Amino acid sequence: MGPGGRAGSAALVGGSVAIFGALRRLALALPRPAAVRSRPGRVWRWRNLLVSFAHSVLAGIWALLSLWHSPELLSDIQEGYSISGHLLVCFSSGYFIHDTLDIIFNHQSRSSWEYLVHHAMAISAFVSLIITGRFLVAAMLLLLVEVSNIFLTVRMLLKMSNVPSPALYEANKYINLVMYFAFRLAPQAYLTWYFLRYVEVQGQGAFLAANLLLLDAMILMYFSRLLRSDFFPSLRKGAAGRDVDGEKFLID
User: Fold this and answer.
1) How far are the Cα atoms of 7, 46, 68, 90, 225 from residue 140, in angstroms, in the given order?
2) Is residue 235 a part of any domain in this protein?
3) How many structural domains compose the chain?
4) Residue limits of the TLC domain (predicted)?
5) Which of 189, 209, 185, 186 is closest to 199 using CA atoms?
6) Distance from CA of residue 113 to its chain's centroid?
7) pLDDT tens figures, 219-251
8) What is the pLDDT of residues 145-163, one digit of tens each?
């Protein structure tokens, strides 16, 4: 990519950061459930989750429709390219940068360190994809995870708001599990297999493979937390009495 292309991509990423900044300000003006208003420590987390929800809806549907519209991209994960995919990666890079800054500037780094690690991995990987134009299809596949995140975020919002509707939480719990398999575990497993089998372990390929393997470990850890929390609560350790106000766990 030439200087002009890099400058254009940087502008797209910067524009995305600004969009999510505007969404954050909008979230501040939205009404909050009584359970959130009564616990000051939850206000930041609620607003942050609303912005995360917006990104999940937009990026998840975007990735799904882009791959649905151009399935031929899946035949060339390393060199396949589409304008839609490039824009999607710029858009999500902006979100990850915005969320990182939101966590740091609101002094949530200690309680949200897992997010910071995840975002650092995503930003560095996406920047390398934007610059080289390679492995954009892999990024599109990974961003299918945002479809799963729609229901994961709904789960966390329901828990925080103490909505008196167990049936709604129960229904989302099972939908979330199905989506976790379909849009998080399955694409991740396929990409891991593909990188280990077909991608040369050098340069950008080695860097992305290392990121992918670390992400594998994180996803399996989050999956075990999800199962313990929603399906095997008796196996949870140290959960009783824990105050999670303000904390942004990927799964709690």
Assistant:
1) 22, 27, 11, 11, 26
2) no
3) 1
4) 41-235
5) 209
6) 14
7) 999 999 999 999 998 776 654 444 445 455 444
8) 999 999 999 999 999 988 7
